Amino acid sequence: MHLQSLFVLAATLPLAWTHQHHGGIGRRSEQAPMSQPGLSINGIPYSTRAYWMRKANQALFDVLGDACPFAAFGTVIVNHTVDGLGDLVCIGANTNKVTGNPTLHGEMAAIQNCSEIFTDPSGPYNMTAAEALDAFSQLSLYTNAESCPMCASAIQWSGFAEYIYGTSIDTLIEKGWGQIRIGSMEVFRQSFDMGTTTRLIGEVLTNETDPYFLWQYDPSYSCPEGCSRSGSTCSNTPTTA
Ligand SMILES: [Zn+2]
């Protein structure tokens, strides 16, 4: 077994934390925020994490042309092995309704897009399939909401260096979303045979990601920035010249 000490810590500490703070509100998914403003995890400052989390929100508009789609799940995949902010490799958004493919959550769509970009013979990388598979271990996946178990498993199969999420599954559930109630921490905990060492950094910039998910089932909640409410839906606010 190659359990990292980080994961041992991560797997045990939040239990006490959740019991102490959430013991009376049903069963939380046994995980706690792993990032706070001011922390610099893997040498990357929080301001850089926030920059890319905003890009994950922006991926909604970039992919769908809609700043406030109902399924507002956006992802960016970033190479932090270069200096500075890092390089954007690819983006994705939940495209179930565009493609008819129920598995194309934002994370799955982004992974697929990265693979296509990596192996495109006329693209910037021109990798073999084997090289593309290896490349994911150097990359960081940012998603504006915690991955469902399918996507968290895909993150494990990809072997990402880092996985950073915004809004938690617990928040989604509390705000009316139907979810498979297995948190990413649990998926990671059960992935010890995989030999991967993805660092999980949770609940980054939730003050900016939460608004994308809190309006859908709450008629009194304001729409995300750039959108306005018409009945039960939020739509892009027309820009006036
Ligand atoms: Zn998913």
UniProtKB/TrEMBL annotation:
Gene3D superfamilies reported for this sequence? Cytidine Deaminase, domain 2
Q: Which protein, by its recorded name, is this?
A: CMP/dCMP-type deaminase domain-containing protein
The residues forming the signal peptide are 1-18
- Judging by the UniProt lineage, the source's domain of life is Eukaryota
Entry keyword annotation includes Signal: yes
Keywords per UniProt: Signal
The residue ranges of the CMP/dCMP-type deaminase domain are: 47-188
Tell me a Gene Ontology molecular-function term this record carries.
tRNA-specific adenosine-34 deaminase activity
Q: Which organism is it from?
A: Pestalotiopsis fici (strain W106-1 / CGMCC3.15140)
GO biological process: any one?
tRNA wobble adenosine to inosine editing
